[in-house]
Design brief:
mainly alpha, 297 residues, 3% strand, globular
């Protein structure tokens, strides 16, 4: 059981002192178990099943994550009308499989999400007061649905399956590298007022793991990207993913919960597992589309 925290806004933008209490560090081997199950399933889903099956899978994952987001924000009592509105908005985003129609709207969702999350990271103590229920419902759709729908856009590119693997593997290894390096060698707190377990050493470990993953993906199955692309994407996706991770930490801490749910052993909920990917997927998509301009991608 997670203990309650004082949710009243402090006089300054610095969060409550009890946020800075870091729990003891220890490795949790359960973090590896879901990956051993989901990675082969995800590979088969992307590689062998029709594109619509991938859309359905991503939409289901987004639905679970949206439910968890609303549960965290509304304290476990999500109004049915609000949940129905959120799921309807989510479904609307995913039925737009035509890139020409979906891209402008999803780009707007991504930019709105980034601007909002930056505001929470700069002044997290006002999360509850600054986000009325109506805005929370819209943010949930943009944050979860709008960002995760970029996986569908990536899948529709000429090298779609390979690019989906690229962003998934790079994001996952960045998280994994940051976790293990942080636990084993972390000494310097990165953002103790938000996430006491995050360390500077863990960040660099995540960067190294992400760059290595990106370069291996390029060598093995995405030769259209250069080694310089791999270096840049490894660094950028690690930083962007960290922002998504910290933003979700703000949501959970100000709501007095440790995990978004308990669906995935060792990871918490679906939202806990997708928090980094929610920002890395759009960032990767726009890098490929706007920076590379390669017809092979």
């Amino acid at each position: 059981m997670s203990r309650e925290i004082d949710q009243s806004p402090p006089s300054s933008s610095r969060p409550p002192a009890e946020w800075q209490e870091a729990p003891p560090r220890r490795l949790d081997p359960r973090r590896l178990y879901p990956a051993l199950v989901f990675i082969p399933l995800f590979f088969a889903l992307v590689q062998y099943l029709p594109p619509m099956a991938f859309v359905v899978f991503v939409c289901l994952a987004a639905s679970f994550a949206l439910w968890e987001f609303y549960t965290v924000y509304f304290g476990g009592h999500v109004p049915r009308s609000l949940l129905a509105f959120g799921l309807l908005g989510l479904a609307t985003l995913f039925v737009m499989t035509d890139r020409a129609l979906a891209e402008p709207l999803l780009a707007g969702c991504f930019l709105l999400t980034v601007a909002t999350l930056l505001g929470f990271l700069i002044n997290p103590a006002y999360f509850k007061d600054a986000l009325p229920r109506s805005l929370a419902s819209v943010l949930g759709i943009c944050y979860i649905g709008g960002c995760l729908a970029h996986l569908v856009l990536i899948r529709q590119l000429p090298a779609g399956p390979e690019l989906v693997f690229f962003v998934i593997v790079t994001t996952w290894l960045a998280d994994t590298g940051a976790y293990y390096v942080g636990v084993l060698a972390g000494r310097t707190p990165l953002a103790p007022w938000i996430s006491p377990r995050k360390t500077v050493e863990g960040l660099f470990g995540g960067m190294l793991a992400a760059v290595a993953a990106a370069l291996l993906c390029i060598i093995w199955f995405v030769p259209e990207l250069t080694l310089l692309d791999g270096l840049l994407l490894g660094l950028v996706l690690t930083i962007v993913g960290l922002m998504g991770d910290l933003a979700e930490s703000v949501f959970k801490r100000l709501s007095g919960v440790k995990d978004s749910s308990g669906l995935i052993p060792g990871h918490g909920g679906v939202l806990d597992r997708l928090d980094s990917l929610l920002l890395t997927a759009p960032s990767f998509y726009y890098y490929v589309v706007l920076v590379k301009h390669s017809p092979a991608l």
